[in-house]
Amino acid sequence: MTESSYDGIIFDVDGTLWDSTFVVEKAWNKALKDNGYSDVSVTADRLKGLFGLPMLDIIEDILPESTLEERKEFLPHCSKYEFEFLEKEAGRVYEGLEESLRILKEEGHSLYIVSNCQKGYIELFFEKTGLGHYFDKGICPGDTGMLKAENIALIVDRFGLNRPLYVGDTHMDAEACVKAKVPFCFASYGFGSVNDYAHIISKPLDLIEICR
After folding, report:
1. Are 100 and 106 spatial neighbours (Cβ–Cβ below 8 Å)?
2. How many domains would you assign to the chain?
3. Pair (127, 206) in one structural domain
4. Would you say residue 124 lies in a domain?
């Protein structure tokens, strides 16, 4: 690893490592129906535009007339149904991801995950994909009580990273990187659209040359 290469690569999950929206669509629609919101539904495409937001913000977008208390009450039901559905049907890992992770580890990079997902989601991703052994740590708001920018900074500080890089797919990821003062790599194959970034990749394997 050269002096100018990145020593720690921090990844988002949804839209960067895998796409679970087609499963979450089914889970959330059942949760809505079973909890008195049978007139409301979501689609995978709509979820792609919401993933990356904190969970309560996603619920507010789907249930704009709800109170904060109602959203907090609905949140554990969403999480429960989502986990149950993903246990039966995993999301789709992006092509070339495991090869990318393997090469990055072999070349001396430390790998991490920071996501605004609910507690246990990163561990579920590890379980369903078998990719957990590539990562040194994964954290989310449910673990720390903090959102993405603060959690990125926490990983940088905790593991003493001198040249970290964050890989994500939305403008919210880019904004978090600005706050955390960490360079942002835009995964253009994901869910979002970003104009300001240090690097851009069209597939996971593109990351190899950037990190060398």
Report:
1. no
2. 2
3. yes
4. yes
Any domain includes 206: yes
Task: Return the number of other C-beta atoms located less than 10 Å from residue 80's C-beta.
Answer: 12
Q: Is residue 3 part of a domain?
A: no
Q: Note whether 82 and 170 are same-domain residues.
A: no
Rg (CA), the chain: 17
Q: Is residue 131 part of a domain?
A: yes
CA–CA separation, 150 vs 205, rounded Å?
A: 28
Give, for all 212 residues of the chain, the pLDDT tens digit. Answer: 444 489 999 999 999 999 999 999 999 999 999 999 999 999 999 999 999 888 899 999 999 999 999 999 999 999 999 999 999 999 999 999 999 999 999 999 999 999 999 999 999 999 999 999 999 999 999 899 999 999 999 999 999 999 999 999 999 999 999 999 999 999 999 999 999 999 999 999 999 999 98
Residues 166 and 61 in one domain: no
Give the Å distances, CA to CA, from 194 to 15, 17, 85, 170, 173: 13, 17, 30, 6, 9
Query: CA 107 to CA 112: how far, in whole Å?
Result: 15
Cα dihedral 74, 80, 84, 85 sign? positive
CB 19 within 8 A of CB 92: yes
